[in-house]
Amino acid sequence: MQNVLLGILIPFIGTTLGSSLVFFMKNKINDKIQKFLLGFAAGVMIAASVWSLLLPSMNIAKEQGIVEWIPACVGFLLGILFLLLLDIIIPHLHVSSTKPEGLKSNFKKTTMFFLAVTLHNIPEGMAAGVVFAGVLLDNVGLSFAGALALSIGIAIQNFPEGAIISIPFKAEGFSKPKAFFYGVLSGIVEPIAALITILLTNLVVPILPYLLSFAAGAMIYAVVEELIPESQQGKHTNLGTIGVALGFVVMMVLDTALG
Q1: What does each C-alpha distance from 113 to 81, 136, 145 come to in angstroms?
Q2: Which end of the chain has fewer surrounding CB within 10 Å, N or C?
């Protein structure tokens, strides 16, 4: 159980490390670096959705005597719909929104983006919680190494998110410690969502394939709605594309090597 608790904290550590860049960088991340990091995060999430979530979902469904693609399709579409509804219900700003003019508008943009990242960290926490819950069940074909690979992958893509949150807060006049705090705060929802999912482990068994694919759908929604559009806006879009390719390959290798 201690290993599981450590595993669900790894994504949060990624956010924290990314947020700590506020102590070493100026008020703005270099545009080229930001494009690459956003693309890299997108690639990691796409690969994690396939190898860590959708494929295990289909394998477990097959073992349960269910047609493999049904839970994968249903859960995936529900995950997309869930994030779509949250986007409509909860006011926030998309990463790709046009930058408003004026100090107050900039602060509002930073705050709303904080809400957007925090919102999309919830399904990532659920994804980690689901796979580690499967590991605790010990009879559904999910390995600790595979779950660890997913957590590391989420941590990798959380790193730039932490920086993208904390550095703009500093640019708006917040002290470095306070800006760092807001970056960390955006990621705290992940271990909380993961822990809640694990505490409900006994209820997870019959619907585990659906939950895995649900998490995949939610993560893909975040990629399509937020990360890809931002990485492809303005100049240096090729760096975003390269980032996607490298992120995908890194996560694919990480998952297949450990899983």
Answers
A1: 20, 35, 33
A2: N
